[in-house]
Specification:
Pathway: Amino-sugar metabolism; N-acetylneuraminate degradation; D-fructose 6-phosphate from N-acetylneuraminate: step 5/5. This protein has helices spanning about 10-25, 40-50, 80-85, 110-120, 160-165, 185-190, 205-210; strands at about 1-5, 30-35, 60-65, 65-70, 100, 130, 155, 180, 195, 230-235. With about 240 residues, it is of the alpha/beta class. The chain binds fructose -6-phosphate (F6R).
Length: about 240
Amino acid sequence: MEFKIFDSYEEASKYSADLVANVLKDKKDAVLGLATGSSPEGMYKELIALYNKGEIDFSEVKSVNLDEYVGLDGSHHQSYRYFMDVNLFNHVNIDKKNTHVPNGIAADLQEGAKAYDALIESMGSVDVQVLGIGPNGHIGFNEPGEELLVHTHVADLKEETIEANARFFESKEEVPTKAVTMGVGAIMKSKKIVLIASGKNKAWAVQQMASDVITTKIPATLLKLHPNVTVVLDQEAASLL
Ligand code: F6R
């Protein structure tokens, strides 16, 4: 696991975008594993800028997102499908048919989860997986607990996650309490991982990633077993290292 620390979030975002862009330059039909939330927003802006400069091309790229809230359809402003469209897909030449986000409104969520794993499998492995990290160490919505699940599943969001995400909604009560999330299996199978963290509220989780411990109670610590992880940080997220 390599830690890269930058003075600002903007610089961290630029660096993360370069890591992803290099994958696209090497492989035109790369499979991108994507995350939503505040952490990768700057990186998506930089990727759009690189696309506008003609440095990268998304025409053959496929993407799979980590997660989606249960109960929100893609037109809801806080759905992760909507986030991806607005923050990246609408601004580059990716074919929307090649972009995949778990279905949070499937009639049968378990079947939907199974189908999502089959889809990922059919694409071959993810070439680069972008991750944020929860203040409690979650990755995707694989929350702290006694166990972690390998496959895509419906997860109950922890109280602290609901509180952290309430900033995007009118009130805490509106935050969905469940999400469909990739399991740790697909994340660990990806060829390369770029994890972005910024701000003081991530410093504890980042410190745990740098420690010698692996525990399901801090899911991101599992990433120590992955051979190619770059953790991209601003000064505040790195403040306990
Ligand atoms: C989002 C996701 C989550 C976030 C994490 C951090 O797709 O999988 O794990 O990466 O909750 O969120 P932000 O970046 O908003 O602090």
